[in-house]
Amino acid sequence: MSLKHEISFRLNGKPATLSVAAHNSTLELLREKLRLTGTKHGCGEGECGACTILVDGISVNACLMFAVDCDGREVTTIEGLRAEKGLSELQKAFVEEGAVQCGFCTPGMIAQATHLRNTCPGMNREEIRRGIEGNLCRCTGYKKIVDAISSSLEKRDS
Amino acid sequence: MERKIERYCVPGTVEEAVEAIAGKDATLFAGGTDLMVQTRSGKRPFTPLLVNISRIAGLGGISTDGDRVRLGALATISGIRTSALLKEKAGVLTEAADSFAGDQVRNKATVGGNICNASPAGDMIVPLLLLDAEVELASTAGRRMLPLCNFFTGPGKTRRERNELLTAIYFPIPPVGFAAGFRKFGTRPAMDISIVSVGVAATRDDAGWKNVRAAFGAVAPTPIRGTRTEAAIEKGGTAGEIARIAESEVSPISDVRASAWYRKELIRTLTERLHHDVFET
User: For testing the chain B interface, which of A1, A8, A23 should be mutated: the one with the most B CBs within 10 Å?
Assistant: First the structure.
């Protein structure tokens, strides 16, 4: 058994205290221990972005982050990214623009696009494309994803 | 393959960190983006002591310090990419940070980690070599400075002793007339590990280009300075001549990303283009 370490953090707005193995990734913590399986395990080495989450409001790959490093931080997963009533404007835009096909990349895309909306709300299409270069989608060809993020920029969540 | 971690610690100060690692076989991480992949693949086993240095006070930040720029070891690649100070004083770092991995990795990965990981392809290293960067290392014995060009000894290997913590990177504020460029070649604008990277820099005065620097990534066991290329640029050779000298002074290997022949071709082509963009326009 590897060393366990107790951590306390906020997960999707609620406090959590638990013990994790020091070598575990945040992705293992989320999916295997907490059963929050909305965050996907794609490549496991930071190439595909399917495991993107927000940590202290900043997008990171959960597969590359040590779970012990969540201690004291604010972690938001796709499960915590919905609006108070139903879908967020970004999520609605994904539906309206047809930016979801198989859906595997979608949680990571939504997390990354949320980060982009928060940090550079005036971005153009090229900046959106650069902003999601760490997220792979094997279905859509990206056009509809860029369309969705772009159209969502004009709308604010109430 | 996986060795047992016996202790995990999160120092809050440099003093606590160097005390914790003194005499120990410690594995340090800040962003963890390289370490996680290396431990998971079995390429690098854990050691008994795992130290999270990401909460050390004062170890981040990008600032001027007299006539130098200081990059705290914990400055993230995103922090470098969006720094107004660096964009103004050392835009070549901004360029390199912009082609570094993707946003999620840039948000977590640190410049200190990129240097200590000592990949021959480390994207922040080539531009820092152009800027005559030095690294600051701390231990219980005090602090010392080491020129970055002498820091690397092989793939993944540096002159950082096991009891030392890399605390900051310093480089002189480039003078008026300084020009520099960086090109990384991969199959995508970012995300890819560099097949090769090239950087050149110099300062213009009335007589021509002085203090010329050239550096190459992913064409030797460590990122390297190209001293013969530098001399050729200073002498005012043509872009073609300089590019052939650059090609002749690198010694790449063939691997899964490219053959040695292709890497040499890229070094010649990118050096020629960079020479044109930086020194002829």
Answer: A23
ipTM: 0.96
Cα of B78 to nearest chain A Cα, Å: 10
- The verdict on A22 touching B (C-beta cutoff 8 Å) is yes
For residue A1, what pLDDT band results from cuts at 50, 70 and 90?
Answer: low
Among B113, B144, B172, give the residue marking a domain's end.
B172
Assign residue B234 the CATH number of its domain: 3.30.390.50
B66, two tokens: 């007299």
Is the predicted pLDDT of residue B279 greater than 60, yes or no? yes
Q: Could you tell me if A41 and A12 lie in one domain?
A: yes
* Total number of domains in chain A: 2
Pairwise CA distance, residues B26 & B13, whole Å: 16
Q: Which residues of B touch A25 (CB under 8 A)?
A: 36, 40
CATH of the domain at A10: 3.10.20.30
- The alpha-carbon gap from B229 to the nearest alpha carbon of chain A, in Å, equals 33
Q: Is A46 on the interface with B (CB under 8 A)?
A: yes
Interface contact B23, partner A, CB < 8 A = no
